[in-house]
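User: For my dataset I need records formatted as: sequence, then structure tokens, nothing else. Please produce one.
Assistant:
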Amino acid sequence: MSERRTYLDIGIGETRGVVTLDGRPERLLVRRDDDDLRLALGARLVARVASLEPTLATAFLDLGGGVEAILPFRPDARPVRGQALQVEIRGEPRRGKLAVTRSLGEAAGAPRLLSAAPDIAGELQALVPGSRPVEGDGAREMADDAQAEALEILHPLAGGGVLAVEPTRALTAIDVDLGATKGQDAKRVTRQANLAALGMAARLLRLKGLGGIVVIDLVGRGHDGAALLAAARSAFAPDNPGVSIGPVGRFGTMELSLPRRTQPLLERLCRDDGALSDRTLAQQLIRRLQAEAAAQPGARLVARCAPGVATAAAPLGVQLAERIGARFSIESDAGRARERLDVAAE
């Protein structure tokens, strides 16, 4: 029977929550202090209908302060331009895409936030009812491990082989590759690998926050379609409602459609080019400063990083100083590689 545990890492400027499945990270939740709470999954707001696109059955909503979202509607429930509605965020914004809402009925007044989405602790409780999150150093280590795995493309399969997960603009492609590990009983090995890969793919897609169309390129030929379909339904059951799974096709691929709910972690943590953002690197730098401060209570610490990272870390450093005192400095080095972060005692 599968076992899920939760971890809560409350850091400076950022809170991270992790759900593990049989000891492996299954979900990573990230909430930063400057996030717009109006756009978080589950937030409820009063919005005003700014415009309509009847051919797309979509209304564009004004959430206030220049923030927008969309509302898909049925032909018999078409809103009116200028109308005030109470809505709930059902899909967080993604790169180039607005947040998606659902209507809860008519409202009155100016656009505003009515109730914020659950905090990270509340989300963990909803995902694993009755769980008591691990906190402290254990939670930080698990969150770091989950973040590192979420950003990887290649993931080793138990028993050999590799699973590659690569999101594109149109879909997420997953490749199952056994390499030279098939051995003599190739049919048995490939069957076991494909069944294991489906469970691993489901976990990794949840960890990475990926949804939409997913195409899994299975290994081998002559697949047991019924067994693979049953395995996929079991593996992706936690993502319901909204999961659609197609049969194994003639080319050995399985297609799925998964609901898009949260912002993909790759977008959350990285720039458009896939490199870690200055803010993400700044959070890592602050965590290193905290760790060194705990390990060397009386030391004066110096952190060195690239200029963009130093700028992003500056407000976080103010908060850190309130906790450990002003016994550290963050120095900008124009010639330093962005991802090189150094913390040392003077």
